[in-house]
Here is the input.
Amino acid sequence: MPGLYPLPFNEQVVFFYNIVAATLWFCCFGRFLILLPLVGRRFLPGGIADFFHVVSLLPLIGSIVVKLALYPRWKKSYLWSLSNGIKMAWLCYGVIFPHPRIARHTSYSILITSWCIQYFIHYSYYAFRVKTKRSPLFLLWFEYNNFYLTYPFALVAEMILLFLSLGFVEEDSIYDYVLRGVFLLYIPVAYFAWGHLKERKRVKYTEVLEKRNVTRIRNNQNGSSNAANPTTATSIELRDIQDN
Here is the structure.
């Protein structure tokens, strides 16, 4: 099968990381779907919070280890994944973990759902890309279109959890001002993030599909012309016979 060839060590590490990350996000979502109807959202954090918070560190680990250590050349796109990983780690361990009561809110369930779906798709897609240098068309579509659903839900859930955490922080403390500042920055940052995601989709999905369609049409036209006038292969065969 083309593309299934031995990978160099650095790509083996990246492939293994993507497989493990996709599996962990899938397990986290499966655990959430099992626990939610059994215990309800108020008791959900006791059964999933520790696991979910550890899994939420994977984007940060991937940004530091996989992209910086194995691919030392810096790209602007790395800044997006690195900042997003830092934000996720801070939300889990700087906002939710110190104030576990806010995890009983419905927004925590929405956050788990959004992140699990988004990153299961993401790591599954890149596992295919690393191993086969291509991916199924449906997975390509999900990778560059899931943000229309997952990003707004995650954004609203994060803002609600931030707002709820203000009630548990000492008023006028440094951390209180930090939380307020981050909360106020969410909307303008989200505006630019949304533009980045749409541009990313345009470059890596829409334009790629357009080029594929143009190439496919061109190949079909070339195939039709060769079938209508099959002189190329025949002339080569005749030339070989004459030379012999």
